[in-house]
Amino acid sequence: MFREVSDHRPLTHSEQGAWDYSRRQFLGHAGISLATAAVATLGAGSLGGSDFSEKDRAGGLEGVPHFLPRARRVIYLCQSGAPSQMDLYDYKPGLVDRFGKELPDSIRRGQRLTGMTASQASFPIAPTQFKFKQRGKSGAWISELLPYTAGIADRLCFIRTMFTEAINHDPAITLMQTGSQLAGRPSFGAWLSYGLGSMNEDLPTFVALTSGTGGQPLYDRLWGSGFLPSRHQGVKFRRSGDPVLFLSNPPGVTRRDRRALLDDLAQLNGLRLEKLGDPEITTRMAQYEMAYRMQLSVPELTDISDEPKSVLDLYGSSVTEPGSYAANCLLARRLVQRGVRFVQLYHRGWDQHTHLPKNIRTQCQDTDQPSAALVQDLAREGMLEDTLVIWAGEFGRTVYCQGTLTRENYGRDHHPRCFTVWLAGGGIKPGITLGQTDDHSYNIEEDPVHVHDLNATMLHCLGIRHTGLTFKYQGRHHRLTDVHGKLVPQILA
User: Residue 435: CA atoms inside 13 Å, Cβ hemisphere, count?
Assistant: First the structure.
């Protein structure tokens, strides 16, 4: 349906040279061996900052990016549990008069149902309880539950016609994050770390943050490296205590003691590397050194006392609560400001099979203001134009009620055939809404966008042809989009 587009000019010879500053070149230029590479970076440089030049990156593949990118970094706001598109973004006023009536067979079309509703004798239509208005100059329809998101409508690109084959949470969120329903593939952030390398020296390339309670579990593999070298996996920051495990020195151990231990350990690991040639030894050495540097960089990162009151107020009252969604949104801005390539936020609690009106209101109160604040804050810092922000769940919700339907209460089951996401920032056209669903928000009528298409387009914003970022494993070349994916040119700026 969509054709591949490349309206970005190729890199010049000099530009390509700057981008091709690979790990091998870095080590050779520095005149050090692979065995001692990690130690050589001890104490080097600053945190990077927003002016950190891409030519200064460490690692990455030669020839990547393939063309000049519009975005340099990504913040992914993953709404775990699948928000109801009908109650937030996909306005269907005609359903008001169909309250309680059966979902027509012509709409359902015999499509697969989950085990939670397949045995229901009836599939009564449940219109949303919430009012919608057109917002901004773009006229995007947004629910009353999202007043802050409504305030930035003209900065956003809504895709109302996302779809997936996955009908249950774990395979669906795994597909969104890794391009496969089966566990074991590299996550999006790991692919970027592998292809583009790091933009900072004192923080990980890829960071994962979690918030919310209940709902579906969040497994470490969602930010894992799969079959890529393990140095590309995301580092999860904890919600309480030390953000990273074992970051603090044990009682009685000084920073000088730790330095001496690492130096001795590096020598032993170097000998082992020379004997075995295992690249994971190099990864381990680099991780030790990164942890040492993070002892200084992470406390500074997480100390928000230097943020103006106006910024804290922008994110809302819960911004000072460590581990809250608001606190993580502010932390995401601080991370990318310091050169972190990919920040993945996961917020649980959207799995609303019952009592949806009450529960979705609470979820929106927790997430609406911080999500909008993040976009505004990035714009204020001059970073939105080269930072790609995405807000997305793993699938949508059914128009029919799961369980008992009343005027005051309803629940919704999983619905993979259409759902809504929004994007903002680097390379994305603002103030547009793509796609049209039918009058029951059940099937797509215009401009379908598969998960693979979305991932291909996001990679494009980062200067990467999705077919050109591959890794050979078990006899074939794998990629984030597997053997699928088409660009969605309508949303590209």
Answer: 30
**First and final C-alpha spacing in the chain:** 19
Strand ranges inside 124-240, DSSP E: 132-135, 140-143, 157-163, 206-211, 235-236
Residue 242: band (very low, low, confident or very high) from pLDDT cuts 50, 70, 90: confident
Please state the rounded mean pLDDT for residues 279-303. 77
Dihedral sign for Cα 43, 193, 176, 91, please: positive
CA distance 477 to 463: 20
Pairwise CA distance, residues 468 & 195, whole Å: 10
The pLDDT of residue 252 is 78
d(CA 418, CA 395): 7
Helix H or strand E encompassing 450: strand 449-450
Distance in angstroms (rounded) separating the CA atoms of residues 190 and 59:
13
Query: What stretches of 224-351 adopt beta strand conformation (E)?
Result: 235-236, 342-347
Rounded average pLDDT over 69-95: 98
| CB of 63 closer than 8 Å to CB of 16 | yes
Q: What is the pLDDT of residues 163-177, one digit of tens each?
A: 999 999 999 999 999
Residue 204, both tokens: 């990980």
Model's pTM, two decimal places? 0.85
What the block records as the tokens of 206 is: 């890829």
**Domains plus CATH for the chain?**
52-250+300-491 (3.40.720)
Here the tokens at position 447 are 């401009």
Q: Which residues pair with 342 in a beta bridge?
A: 74, 206
